[in-house]
Amino acid sequence: MKVVVINSGSSSIKFQLLEMDKEEVLATGLVERIGSSEAQVRCTYRPGEQTEEKHIQSINCPDHRHGMRLAVQLLVGPGRPVADPGAIAAVGHRIVHGGEEFHQPTLISDEVLAAIEKNIPLAPLHNPANLDGVRIARELFAEVPQVAVFDTAFHQTIPPEAYHYALPAHLYRQWRVRRYGFHGTSHKFVAGECARAMQRPLEELNLITLHLGNGCSMTAIEKGRSVDTSLGLTPLEGLVMGSRSGDVDPAMHAFLARNCGMDIESIDHLLNNESGLKGLCGMNDMRDIHAAIAAGDTWAELALAVQTYRNRKYIGAYLAVLGRVDAVVFTAGIGENDPVVRARTLAGLEPLGIAIDTERNHCRSAGPRRISSDDSRVAVWVVPTNEELAIAREVRALLTPA
Ligand code: AMP
Q: Could you tell me which of 38, 19, 35 has the C-alpha nearest to residue 27?
């Protein structure tokens, strides 16, 4: 069963072709800088043993339609991984915001497209680009089932006391203002992989999952169901991210408007694009921050301290939410690769039953690995995420129910 996974963003399209019988990646690629005459296209065939690269630089790509055509040309045709589009069983699309309508991956129809469109006010940067990807893929793969996999869907099990903000009720009733949460595909995937690695049914486990990449979020998972998560109405709340502030005093907007001469657009831009690690120290890549700390940069050290302190504070909150926790799980770029962030996030939590083993924390591996000490009551795991595989699995499960 060959599945194409499309992640269509505002100026880029990521794509992957997977053979789902063996969960094997046949091709993975990226079209970047859509909307310019200097677009870049990269595609890797059979990543692994017989890797073959195709790199096209400075190609004219005025819009997503051109971008999708380029992607399809790299996947389908003579000498490509798939000879004709009929060999593709399904296309899976990452959709950022499914609102309250979508609790599951969903086969795309005109009604589903209309419902995704209705959620544009909740994700004005993401959903339009996601929709472009879907519409063009429906034309290019006319007979092929298309499936929407939502970043928000996993969190639809969060109970009302955790998803409501204490705001006038009409804002929820009329505008659906509430916590939605994001990175759901990743949290669900690593929870499942962790349960498998622990050889325990997911339905028995309480987990705290930390997705720490450029975007960061934490989820409290009770018996396989999300019961709270740190991202909110939009992907800005909660943890300190690469360029996003995470939690601030909600009066921040009023303060900045009244005192700093900023309008709503520039405040939104400041909190989403100029804050977080980048705001504190001018860098949003954790590798650069470590290098700067080694060179004596005190703002870089502060940025690391603020991020790991916020992580720890949320772990404390989710320990209280869950009561009993079986494992804390780290994933994504920082979570998988940065032993310093992991150690500082969990520092001092031994009295709460969480202790990592320094040597295990510094080991690397491609698959899931346990990094807690043998006497830690709560296990600590590093579990690599793979959102494309997670989407392709959801597509397979929807189209070939057991
Ligand atoms: P992601 O959004 O999951 O792709 O994560 C991207 C982020 O992961 C980058 O901005 C870096 O901050 C971080 N990252 C990637 N590799 C490493 C590494 N080896 N050590 C520390 N941080 C890393």
A: 19
